[in-house]
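To assess whether ligand presence alters the predicted conformation, the chain was also submitted together with NAP. Input:
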Amino acid sequence: MPKIFLVTGSSRGLGREIVTAALAAGHRVMATGRDPRALEDLVAAHGDQVRTARLDVTDAEAADHVVSETIDAFGRLDVVVNSAGQGDRASLEDTSLEAFRRQIDTNFYGTVYLSRAAVPVLRRQGGGRERGYEQVGIPRNRAARALGPETASRGGRPLIQRSTVPTLDARQW
Ligand SMILES: NC(=O)c1ccc[n+]([C@@H]2O[C@H](COP(=O)([O-])OP(=O)(O)OC[C@H]3O[C@@H](n4cnc5c(N)ncnc54)[C@H](OP(=O)(O)O)[C@@H]3O)[C@@H](O)[C@H]2O)c1
């Protein structure tokens, strides 16, 4: 049965790949990005199977709004994909505090805002999925140096997600 997806970071990278795969599998997608112009080709190719919306994931109000838009457009929401991300690949001492905070705002708070908006909807419906990338490991080699701030900014997200799992019944999946 077709599902309703909401995907952040749909302009390029993994988010775009997930949108494309979901559409190819017959699902319906709310594809979001900071610049909706980068999503126009999706509508041209897939018509009503896809809707697009502007979403900068660091904007909590916009996250609430896009969940409402998804329900208005498709009637429900089944899968939330937190794909938007900022990875600067610089060491702790080479990262400015501003850049560190930007990664935390995007990678951690970005998923918090969308989850807070979407999880109550999924729970009311009796189930759903909320996904993002787990990147909590640091290798024990020199490559570790460049991964500290980015990995730290992602480390809390899976814990927040796991806290919702017991109340999001996954058995129907
Ligand atoms: N690819 C991998 O193998 C891999 C593995 C582990 C983790 N990751 C991490 O997962 C994230 C996604 O990977 P990727 O390969 O798809 O990266 P990517 O090609 O750099 O794409 C990043 C996506 O996030 C969007 N984005 C960034 N900040 C945003 C914001 N504030 N609000 C909304 N969208 C925002 C970008 O949109 P714009 O077009 O507007 O910039 C773009 O769509 C990255 O941070 C990456 O470090 C990737």
